[in-house]
Write a structure and sequence with these properties.
It is a single chain. The chain has about 475 residues and is α+β, with helices and mostly antiparallel strands. It contains twelve helices and 25 strands. Among the domains are: about 190 residues, no CATH class; about 120 residues, no CATH class. A seven-stranded mixed beta sheet has the order 4-3-8-11-12-1-13. A six-stranded antiparallel beta sheet has the order 7-6-5-2-9-10, with no helix packed on it. Strand 11 and strand 12 form a beta hairpin. Helix 6 crosses helix 7, helix 6 runs antiparallel to helix 11 and helix 6 crosses helix 12. The longest helix has 21 residues. About 45% of the residues are buried. It binds zinc ion.
Amino acid sequence: MLRSGLSWTRRRLRVAARRHGSLALVLALLPLAAGCFASKRVGYQDRPVGPDVAGPISAAEPVDLRVALGEQLAKQRITCTGPYRISSGLYDETILDLDAGDSTSAWCLQGRVMYANALQGGRLDWLVAEPRDPDHHMLWDGRSWRGALHVIVCPVDSASVTVLNVVDLEDYLAGVVPLEIGRGRPESERAAVEAQAIAARTYAFAKLDARRGRGFDLYADTRDQVYGGADVEDPVATAAVSATAGLILRHEGLPASTFFHANCGGHTVAKDAVWPVPPDPLLRGVRDTRPDGRPWCADGHGAQWREQWTWSDLESVLQRSLPAYMNYVENGSGKAWASDAFRPATAGADGRRPGQLRDLRVAETSPDGRVAVLEVVTTSGVYRVRGGRIRWVLRSGGGKFTLLRSTLFDLTVADGRTATATGRGHGHGLGLCQDGAVARARAGEQSRDILEHYYPGANLGPIVASDLP
Ligand SMILES: [Zn+2]
């Protein structure tokens, strides 16, 4: 805790130093910042956004993120494409300078970080390795990373290390956007990539300090956003990040919940239809269709899908997934759904032991066509599976056990022999539909149009110092 607290302090000091060093730029930003907070729910049309205001946006506050590349690790090896230095994260004093390609090993021993290289070895509370020249990249796990690599004792067990990439928010996004919306997007789809960059920036910004107890801000995988470092960068994504630098979406003055997903199937979903939470006006579910009624995302990869199970396959899936659902409603965040989640067939039947499958049916459908309640009838009783959890319960068979692609599907049960789901869309359906955004960009929509559609009521504006936690 001490280490992560100090790390955080250092970042804030860095931001403060830059803020005081660039007072003129901050003053230039003030009218924009004031607008963000004083005029809630002002539509984008009232304020120029995106590339039009690249000048002031580029002056936004720099923010360092702590991204966990690996957690609970044994001995690690790091090096650099150019000269680099090793320092103590606690005191920021250079301990030694190394040449390009020199490797340093780091591991945990008795609650401290041990390190060794060709020059010397030692122990630290917190090891920092960073290039002398920011054009060079640190190397870890066969990949290259902008910014610095930090090795800390993993706060979870104090017996292993966590490798962090401490990286500027904009550099981080250059390694996220290509993986989240697809690499190699053409210039004609640039507006969608910009919208993705803004959504991803807002998500990351809202996560600052969210995992303080683990010593970092974000995971580098699907637990947060998939981040591949410098190796995955591509020109259009980098240009989109740069053109929108520092811009985030706000809703009612706070960073917005910028969920995004691959393909909505023609209608995004309301947040309260996915989880037992109050309605969120920002994530209320919107139509995603062209004037002729055809979904914008109809041509996306995986826009339509079919999943089929044999009865025995489905039974073996449900033996695992139904007990997990019961755990979710009884002990997890799904408690509001617990009251009718399971109706026992006989007194004392245990929802954790599903028994044999008798039937499967769609019990409720939402107005936009999604399956809202799936009933699973077994010898133990009747399960009512709701919202987004339907994807968790009706997983793929054949040993894959992957989530169902979406909740927008028709179900056919053939006489106790097979079950077939035929559906549209891919993902939870919340917020920005990536395939829809790409089609809108191709049709000439700008990033602000795209964001306004998928996040109705959000405001776009630059990060300012007072936003920092
Ligand atoms: Zn869509």
